Amino acid sequence: MVKLLNKSHVKGKIAERKARLWLHLKGYKVLEYNYTTPVGEIDILARKGDSLIAVEVKARQTEDEAKNAIQQKQWERIARAVTFYQSKHPEVVACDIQFDAIFVIPMRMTPLHVKNAWNPPTSL
């Protein structure tokens, strides 16, 4: 059975590929992408030094549209997915956790990487 992809899905996949390349060029090691768990999904999980970085990727026409596309509930699902990942990968339990966003915007030459875009509350 052939699965047809809609235009926005294809645009999102291209944006995620650009984001992975951008991270690689900046010295990050991409551990997983499109990582799906029972509690949430993470676009990209990367590591740099002693940090485990969960990256949410958004492709929008403007920076403001991209920033507004990520809601609080989505960050909370990502945080739960990171905890799930750590439970399966003990080598990253001691890592600092960072939540970044990468915005792919047509009029920018390079993706916009926002480090520490969100900090979870201490109790999730």
Protein architecture, described:
This protein is of the alpha+beta class and about 120 residues long. It has one domain (about 30-120): Trna Endonuclease, Chain: A, domain 1. Helices cover about 35% and strands about 35% of the residues. It is built from 3 helices and 5 strands, in the order αβββααββ. A 5-stranded mixed sheet has the order 1-2-3-4-5. A hairpin with a 7-residue loop joins strand 4 and strand 5 (about 110-120). The protein is globular. The model has no long low-confidence stretch (mean pLDDT about 90).
Q: Which CATH architecture would you pick?
A: 3-Layer(aba) Sandwich
Number of helical segments with 4 or more residues: 3
Can you summarize the main beta sheet? 5 strands, mixed
Order of helices and strands, N to C? HEEEHHEE
Q: List low-pLDDT spans.
A: none
What is the count of β-strands?
5
Could you say which overall geometry the principal axes of the C-alpha atoms support?
globular
Number of domains: 1
What is the residue-mean pLDDT, rounded to a whole number? 91
Helical content class: 25-40%
Question: Helix/strand-derived class?
Answer: alpha+beta
First and last CA, distance: 40 Å
Give the strand line-up of the largest sheet.
1-2-3-4-5
Specify the CATH class. Answer: Alpha Beta
For this structure, the CATH topology is Trna Endonuclease, Chain: A, domain 1
Radius of gyration: 14 Å
- Oligomer state equals single chain
Hey, roughly how much beta strand do the residues contain?
Answer: 25-35%
